[in-house]
Specification:
Blueprint (H helix, E strand, L loop, with lengths): L2 H4 L29 H15 L2 H21 L11 H61 L5 H17 L9
Helix pairs in contact: 2-4
């Protein structure tokens, strides 16, 4: 046999050899499962905290203490001299983690905004349809009431009849 056939195959084999009519079995990897929503909530909290005055204040205090410690050399310890390369490395690491987390939070906010926009648009369409229906109903009522007697019309007709009866002296004149 050749070296190629001596290697064990990943496909299931029968007594005659590999079963070519069936797909190969997939190997599963044992990676930790991450809840996307929980991680998204963490990213939103992180991004929200990074945008606060509290974060900026604590970061400023940290930098001032770091620079002071390494310029003065408290107890003779100066672990990051003047160009502060280690501090720069910390900032770069923080930025490399902060940027994707902030983008993830923004994407989640965009998704929420899109859902809210679609909901608002659907509500507005329903309100517009209701308004158009009511407009048609009011217009049909106006058309229907043109032939019907309104309160003002009945009052004016009664006044005309009363005036006519007074002129014929069938009733006593009104004191008005």
């Amino acid at each position: 046999m050749t070296e190629r056939t001596d290697r064990p195959t990943r496909r299931r084999e029968s007594a005659r050899g590999p079963k070519l009519d069936q797909p190969a079995e997939l190997r599963t990897r044992r990676l930790p499962q991450i809840d996307a929503d929980a991680f998204g909530v963490f990213a939103e909290r992180f991004a929200r905290f990074m945008g606060t005055a509290k974060f900026l204040m604590w970061m400023t205090v940290f930098v001032i203490l770091w620079v002071a410690w390494n310029l003065i050399g408290v107890f003779g310890l100066r672990y990051d001299p003047y160009p502060f390369i280690l501090l720069n490395l910390f900032f770069s690491t923080q930025a490399s983690y902060a940027a994707p987390l902030i983008l993830l939070a923004q994407n989640r906010q965009d998704d929420r905004d899109r859902v809210a926009l679609e909901s608002d648009r659907a509500r507005d369409e329903r309100a517009l349809a209701d308004t158009e229906f009511l407009t048609r109903e009011v217009a049909s009522l106006r058309l229907a009431t043109r032939d019907a007697a309104t309160r003002d019309f009945v009052r004016s007709e009664l006044r005309n009849l009363l005036d006519e009866l007074e002129q014929r002296s069938l009733i006593a004149p009104r004191d008005s």
